[in-house]
Amino acid sequence: MTQKIIVIGAGMASGRVLEHLFDNGADVDVTLFNAEPRGNYNRIMLSPVLAGDQTYQDIVTHDDAWYAERNVTCRFGEKVSGIDRAAKTVTAENGDVLAYDKLVFGTGSNPFMIPLPGHDLDGVIAYRDLEDTERMMSLGEGHKAVVIGGGLLGLEAAAGMAARGVDVTVVHIMPHLMERQLDEAAGYLLRKALVEKGITVKCSANSKEILGENGKVRALLLDDGTELPCDLLVMAVGIRPNVALAQEAGLAVGKGIHVDDQMLTSDENILAVGECVEHNGALFGLVAPLYDQAKVLAQTLMGQDAAFVQKELSTKLKVTGCDLFSAGDFSEAEGREDIVFRDPARGVYKRLVIEDNIVVGAVFYGDTADSNWFFGLIKDKTDISEMRETLIFGPAYQGGEPLDPMAAVAALPADAEICGCNGVCKGQIVEAIQNGATDLDAIKAVTKASASCGTCTGLVEQVLATTLGDDFVMPTAKPMCGCTDLTHEDVRRLIKSKELKSMPAVWQELGWKTSCGCHHCRPALNFYLLADWPLEYKDDPQSRFINERKHANIQKDGTFSVVPRMWGGITTPDELRAIADAADKFAVPTVKVTGGQRIDLLGVKGEDLPEIWADLNKAGLVSGHAYSKGLRTVKTCVGTDHCRFGTQDSTGLGIKLEKELWGSWTPHKLKLGVSGCPRNCAEATCKDIGVVCVDSGYQVSIGGAAGMDVRETTGLIQVDSEDEAIDVIKAVTQMYRENAKYLDRIYKWMAKVGIEWIAERVNDLDERKALVERFELSQTIYRKDPWAEHVKDKAESYKPLADFKKLEAAE
Amino acid sequence: MSDWIDIGALDAVPQRGARVIKTTFGCVAVFRTAEDEVYALDNACPHKQGPLAEGIVHGKSVTCPLHNWVFDLETGQAQGADEGQVATYPAQVAEGRIMLEASFLQLRAAE
């Protein structure tokens, strides 16, 4: 007897069901409802349609003729308005009542629309069907679009529109793109590829409101106040199984329509398939399991035994021309190790996650050629202990060469700047080498590369080595840490020349050997990045030593010391009272006067820090940064205010300097002194930067030290006015910030680059001005009180996560 | 049958960071790696009792803030030339919450 089958939804899964039924000659009479006014097409291929590589006609799976040949009654553009399970009928929108023997749900999913204010404006769309695609295609060159959602769909929408000349911005709430399929490093590479296509990518960005004008979308407003103007806003933040009709019909529904292994719902005459189902708690979005389900469902309808089994899944994607692969579990578990391979030249990143000598997860970017082999290892739980050393190179490469530590330099393009002082590119150096300059001195003589400050010496040597091969013997330079073979100087230079603006960018482009650095390189990289890219790079507290993360000095017993700033060492009775009150209130065991002319409260509990800061803030006191690799104090004497020998207002200048420089991060701590006369009561000539006032002006000297090394400063310049002195000091500070190795005090840096090199730059008024401007730009971000910020935004993080002591006491 | 105690939200601990749990017998540090794995260890370095929760987290290791001893978060074992071990407690993430096995309270009580 012919089975009457009604199918709701003409998607890829239900389409595959029909193919199985007809291919196997099932005796069925099918009626197919579809809310979209068309039959089954390959929804996955909408992206190539959007990008203009294919047309809608190319992606139609079943055309009118196909349905006609199989006597399928097509009711396209019609919805089902109700189901009577007892009578086994469905009611169509127009009131027709149709009887069924078996009913199949293939209702798919609905795009999730974030209920932001303005989400119902004209021009706010999802990316789900042909209508959405056509809407995007109609936008036209020169228009602006915003895509919310940095997952696969969002990125394909973005890339498709960008290919049509639309100015696209992607807004993603997570720190990196496609966080469910990719890790941070692969996310970075993907982002880079998109940016190269002219797409603006904003991660860690929260959408606040969609702004409109005359009922039409005008811009997206982020919660940091940024407005992104757009003519079209595409929301691609996820999908939800479409279960409304099933729910009305009284079927068992969780997140999706519950089905068993035979794809039967809670009603034995009703089946479901595709994105609308929930099987053993799982939902499905990828096409492979949907096709498996379709086959099982068809077999169930034909009375054959079959069971749907969830399989280990891998994702192999091409997002906008970039090859991606991820499989298994590459996060969240104990007892695992990573094997990481990076090839900066080809933009390749591969990471394997190993547990008990078995590969349990993999993430590949840029080269997915061997992904099936690795997926096989994951599925088969192959013991890889024998091939562990060469595993990451893939099946064809067992027993290869070790990684080339100079890959990063070899990968640099010819126009990458190696020597920042003299503006020498890699290409010029290579040319000089080819013309016979085969050692460092010859390169210096011919190109001037590394002839000034010398910090790029390591890179020049690597260019020599990669160009000359075995003919050049590399001098041994100390690498930054175990994560890389590059020196601090190399890394600094490459951050600038390759414009690396994030930690994952450095790790990938410079071939880091670990997944996320170590306690040696992370604080250094964090400083280099924020010093070179103050606006683009966001300071990473987790890469800072505890003192800088919690803005206080850790003591040997785990308590902290709190030192409020006293500008130029000047205080007031009110400030002193506030300090005394705080010391009483928080039972501070030790109060000490420091060498930098201020007061240290020692022995404060970590969890009390925000409270004591709040109290001190109320009295106008701010952080003294006594814990920072940054500006500490400007020590002064009383100068002309009171002293009979004073020649200038040294206290006033000290206060001005401290107000200009405070909050700035430097390679190591930075202490200043301003003395009002050559008697030098402020001990300015053993500071990092010292000013000694004389009748005729201000003598600025640098590179003093009074620690493990004791050194007198070296004279840099004498200037006539306070303003000039301040500018010179800002310029030197900025030069130090831009060039020195992390944890080198000024005197160590000076010994490497030479006082002449520094003096030359400061004496050049244009260069001085540019340095001051760059310093000021950075200070727009960092010249603020971190205590006040932490009191406001981070106070909770200073408390214990849980307190069982209190709980027990309460019981 | 192990008993898991809900300690707090995963998001309350920064990636590559840690927070402290106070107990009658001292503090336990709960670490979260860049991959969102969580680990619970005694918050005291065997060297000079440095608070490990304040250290820099890298990979599956933490560096003590006082003298740079490095510990494996999984085993609590000191790395490199240093010798020593920190007690570890079973920890997991379930639906965005950090769960510690109740033994972390009992084990510590027995010490």
TrEMBL record, chain A:
Siroheme binds at C681. InterPro entries: BFD-like_2Fe2S-bd_dom, BFD-like_2Fe2S-bd_dom_sf, FAD/NAD-bd_sf, FAD/NAD-binding_dom, FAD/NAD-linked_Rdtase_dimer_sf, NasD-like, NiRdtase/SiRdtase_haem-b_fer, Nit/Sulf_reduc_fer-like_dom_sf. Its cofactor is [2Fe-2S] cluster; FAD; [4Fe-4S] cluster; siroheme. Residues 4-277 form the FAD/NAD(P)-binding domain. Gene3D superfamilies: 3.30.390.30, BFD-like [2Fe-2S]-binding domain, FAD/NAD(P)-binding domain, Sulfite Reductase Hemoprotein, domain 1. Keywords: 2Fe-2S, 4Fe-4S, FAD, Flavoprotein, Heme, Iron, Iron-sulfur, Metal-binding, Nitrate assimilation, Oxidoreductase. It comes from the Bacteria. Residues 629-764 form the Nitrite/sulphite reductase 4Fe-4S domain. Coiled coil: none annotated. PROSITE patterns: NIR_SIR (PS00365). One of its GO terms (biological process) is nitrate assimilation. Residues 418-465, 480-529 form the BFD-like [2Fe-2S]-binding domain. The keyword Disulfide bond does not apply. Pathway: Nitrogen metabolism; nitrate reduction (assimilation). Binds 1 [4Fe-4S] cluster per subunit. Residues 554-618 form the Nitrite/Sulfite reductase ferredoxin-like domain. [4Fe-4S] cluster binds at C637, C643, C677, C681. Belongs to the nitrite and sulfite reductase 4Fe-4S domain family. PANTHER family: NITRITE REDUCTASE (NADH) LARGE SUBUNIT (PTHR43809). This is Nitrite reductase large subunit. It comes from Tritonibacter litoralis.
Automatic annotation (TrEMBL), chain B:
Pfam families: Rieske_2. PROSITE patterns: RIESKE (PS51296). Keywords: 2Fe-2S, Iron, Iron-sulfur, Metal-binding, Nitrate assimilation, Oxidoreductase. Gene3D superfamilies: Rieske [2Fe-2S] iron-sulphur domain (2.102.10.10). One of its GO terms (biological process) is nitrate assimilation. It comes from the Bacteria. Residues 4-100 form the Rieske domain. One of its GO terms (molecular function) is 2 iron, 2 sulfur cluster binding. The keyword Transcription does not apply. NCBIfam families: nirD_assim_sml (TIGR02378). This is Nitrite reductase small subunit NirD. It comes from Tritonibacter litoralis.
